[in-house]
Q: What sequence folds into this?
C-alpha cells in the first residue's frame, strides 16, 4: 500500500475530488481526516471508506476560518501523532460567464481572496506539524484556467494562476524542512457535476451560450483535449495517491498536468 500508516487531512473532503481522493488514500492504507462545511457529505464519504475497510474521521470546518483550521490541525496531529499529507479540495461558488465590461469588482475578487486564503490557512496549519517531523506532502488543486485566456473567467483564471504560484513558491520555503508541495491541475470532470459546486460555477457560461452544461462540456471542452475526452475522478485520485507517496519523493514545486491534453507543458 502506497500510503500505509499515513495520516491525511482532506479539506473539502465531502466534495467530488476531495471524496474521490479520500477513498483512494484510505484504500492505500492512510487514515483519512475529512474536513468540510457539510456534515452529511463528510459522513457519506466516511461511511463508504469504513464499509471498504478503511479508516476515516470527520469534522465540520470552515476552511476560511483561521482559528478553526489551526485548532483542527492541532487536534489531528495530537491524536494521530502527526500529519503526513494534506489536500485542499475546497470548492467556493463564484461568478463565471460574465464578460469584463459587466463584471463587478466584488465578483472578480471573491474567488481570488477566498481560494488564496483557504490554501494559505490550511497549508500553514499542517506545515507547522510537518516541519517538526521533517517530512510531509501538501497537495493543492488548480485548473487550466490558470494558463488560458478568453472571456468570462477573469477572476477564476487569476485565482488559479495565484494558486499555482503559491504552490511553487511554498515548495521553496518548505523544501529545506523535508516538506513537498505539489499542485494537481485537472480539467473539468463531467462526473463531478452532481457532486460539487462545479455545476453552479459553470452555469453562467452555459446559460449565455443557450445550451446545457453537459452539452457545453461535450461539444466545446472535450474536443479541445488531445485525448478527446476530459479527465475522470479516478485519474485525479490516483495521481494524488502517487504524488502523496514516497514513490514521488523527488517531486516538489511541480504543477501536475491532468487536463487530458487541453494544455501541453
A:
Amino acid at each position: 500500500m502506497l500510503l500505509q500508516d499515513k495520516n491525511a487531512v482532506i479539506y473539502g473532503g465531502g466534495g467530488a475530488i476531495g471524496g474521490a481522493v479520500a477513498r483512494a488514500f484510505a484504500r492505500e492504507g492512510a487514515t483519512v481526516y475529512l474536513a468540510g462545511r457539510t456534515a452529511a457529505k463528510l459522513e457519506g464519504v466516511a461511511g463508504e471508506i469504513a464499509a471498504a475497510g478503511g479508516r476515516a474521521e470527520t469534522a465540520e470546518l470552515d476552511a476560511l476560518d483561521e482559528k478553526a483550521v489551526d485548532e483542527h490541525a492541532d487536534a489531528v496531529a495530537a491524536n494521530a501523532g502527526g500529519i503526513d499529507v494534506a489536500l485542499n479540495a475546497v470548492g467556493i461558488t463564484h461568478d463565471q460567464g460574465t464578460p469584463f465590461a459587466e463584471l463587478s469588482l466584488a465578483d472578480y475578487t471573491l474567488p481570488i481572496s477566498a481560494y488564496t486564503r483557504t490554501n494559505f490557512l490550511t497549508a500553514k496549519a499542517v506545515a507547522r506539524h510537518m516541519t517538526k517531523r521533517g517530512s510531509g506532502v501538501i497537495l493543492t488543486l488548480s485548473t487550466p484556467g490558470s494558463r488560458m485566456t478568453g472571456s468570462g473567467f477573469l477572476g477564476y483564471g487569476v485565482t488559479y494562476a495565484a494558486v499555482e504560484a503559491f504552490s511553487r513558491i511554498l515548495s521553496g520555503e518548505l523544501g529545506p524542512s523535508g516538506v513537498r508541495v505539489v499542485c494537481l491541475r485537472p480539467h473539468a470532470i463531467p462526473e463531478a457535476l452532481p457532486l460539487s459546486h462545479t455545476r453552479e460555477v459553470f452555469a453562467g457560461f452555459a446559460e449565455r451560450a443557450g445550451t446545457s452544461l453537459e452539452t457545453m462540456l461535450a461539444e466545446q471542452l472535450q474536443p479541445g483535449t488531445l485525448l478527446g475526452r476530459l479527465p475522470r475522478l479516478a485519474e485525479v485520485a490516483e495521481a494524488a495517491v502517487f504524488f502523496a507517496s514516497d514513490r514521488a519523493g523527488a517531486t516538489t514545486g511541480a504543477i501536475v498536468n491532468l487536463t487530458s491534453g487541453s494544455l501541453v507543458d
